[in-house]
């Protein structure tokens, strides 16, 4: 996936989180991206908006 596509999807995910969806990983997952692409989207989200944290799974 090209860089501009990563940025567009990441910003769409950020907007959805701002609108009330709380789990960024679920939001990114709803786009059904390949693993490598979803990792890049999440990395962009976390670098752009460090206040959006991934949900921690307790073991």
Structural account:
This protein is mostly helical and 59 residues long. The protein has one domain. The protein is 61% helix and 0% strand. The longest helix has 16 residues. It is globular, with a radius of gyration of 11 Å.
Radius of gyration: 11 Å
Q: How many distinct helices?
A: 3
State the order of secondary-structure elements, H for helix, E for strand: HHH
Principal-axis shape equals: globular
Mean pLDDT: 92
- SS-based structural class? mainly alpha
Largest sheet: none
How much β-strand is present in the residues?
under 5%
The total number of structural domains is 1
The portion of residues assigned to helices is 55-70%
**What is the distance, rounded to the nearest whole angstrom, between the alpha carbons of the first and last residues?**
33 Å
Unreliable stretches (pLDDT < 50, length at least 5) are none
Strand element count: 0
Name a few traits of the molecule.
single chain, 59 residues, mainly alpha, globular
What's this, in brief?
The protein is mainly alpha-helical and 59 residues long. The protein has 3 helices and no strands. It is globular, with a radius of gyration of 11 Å.
Set down the secondary structure blueprint:
Layout: H1 3-18, H2 24-29, H3 35-48
Helix pairs in contact: 1-3
């Amino acid at each position: 996936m090209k860089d501009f596509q990563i940025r567009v999807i990441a910003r769409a995910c950020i907007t959805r989180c701002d609108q009330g969806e709380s789990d960024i990983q679920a939001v990114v997952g709803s786009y059904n991206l390949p693993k490598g692409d979803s990792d890049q989207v999440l990395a962009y989200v976390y670098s752009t908006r460090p206040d959006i944290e991934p949900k921690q799974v307790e073991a």
